[in-house]
Amino acid sequence: MIENRYSKQILFQQIGPEGQEKISRSKVAVIGIGALGTVISSQLCRAGVGYLRLIDRDFVELSNLQRQILFDEEDVRSRLPKAVAAAGKLRAANSEITIEDVVTDVTARNVEQLISGVDIVLDGTDNLETRFLINDASLKTKKPWVYGGALGSHGMTMNVIPGKSACLRCLLPESPPPGAMQNCDTDGVLGAATGVVASLQAAEALKYLVGREPRPTLLIIDVWDGEFVELTVQPRPHCPACDKGEYEYLAGTRTSWTTALCGRNAVQIVPPKEHQIPLHELQERLSRVGRTSYNGFLLSFEAEGRELMLFPTGRAIIRGTTDEAEARTFYTRYVGL
Ligand SMILES: [Zn+2]
Questions:
Q1: Which residue from 13, 120, 143, 324 has the least number of CB within 10 angstroms?
Q2: Which domains occur in the chain, in start order?
């Protein structure tokens, strides 16, 4: 066989020359180009996926370099958008494929367009709200997607194949209240954990693209304790998304509501539902990463040149920006959506 860039992959019998041909004709969207998304897009680009759409709303920061493998110090200095920085690195790694970079916040308004024309969607996001949006849009358009998430030393992944498998809302019927979930900005994450989860996601995508049966389970891993646990998730009867076809996140009835507050250099975020957040507990976590104060009514938190004022219902005002996408990123990072 003539040596080419894919020869080692073609020698792998489950792919072979036919599989490689299918991979080169495939189109994939990766949503979120961070710890998971950089590893996923790197592997799929090098594997020869013919078209990659890289979607991200954020720019590169120093604390990303520990695990977001496509970025370097120069990207931090030039504050490049992650999608743009990643696309540049990947075009240099494989000039034979098409790579599109899209710098945008994924919302109910644009998610269907963002996943249009691709064969499969890979989740590299860091929040449940966007994942539920991807879940709705993927079910509505009958497009498979691969869920992935990691925190600390553990992570999980699951394939959602419309009409065949359970969906994310079968696994998590309701999103937890803001502040209830741990996240990597207050609890940390190992690059080894995100790397393993992302590699599993990329392998599942390749399997799907060459026509193999995707894994029907939720796979939970811990790289510190060396654990792999596989669970079967049954489609949930009356699941609003995959059984009833009620796409509540896509309809915007469950998504948060963001408004720039004119002339105040601030943005207000209102979650879709009112909650009772234990602010003193959240203060304890946030005090590890910034300045906090709690006056019994609202929690204020300062970091990255911004101030967040959080009310117990989950409503927040973020000072120091008028950019709604930036404010959502800040809120997602420290409070969670
Ligand atoms: Zn479902």
A1: 13
A2: 7-232 (3.40.50.720), 257-334 (3.30.310.10)
Quick check: 1 pLDDT over 70?
Answer: no
What is the CA(279)–ligand 1 centre distance, in A? 32
pLDDT tens readout for residues 208-256? 999 998 888 999 999 999 999 999 999 999 999 999 999 999 998 777 7
Name the helix (H) or strand (E) containing 37: helix 35-47
**Global pTM value:** 0.84
Residue list, CB under 5 A from ion ligand 1: 167, 169-170, 239, 241-242
Query: Which residues, including other chains, have CB under 8 Å from residue 287's CB and lie 6 or more apart?
Result: none
Parallel, antiparallel, or unpaired: how do β-strands 299-303 and 120-123 relate? unpaired
- Please report the pLDDT score of residue 262 as a whole number: 63
| CA 241 – ligand 1 centroid, Å | 5
Contacts of 246 (CB under 8 A, 6+ apart): 240
Q: Which residues face 277 on adjacent strands?
A: none
52 alpha carbon to ligand 1 midpoint, in Å?
Answer: 27
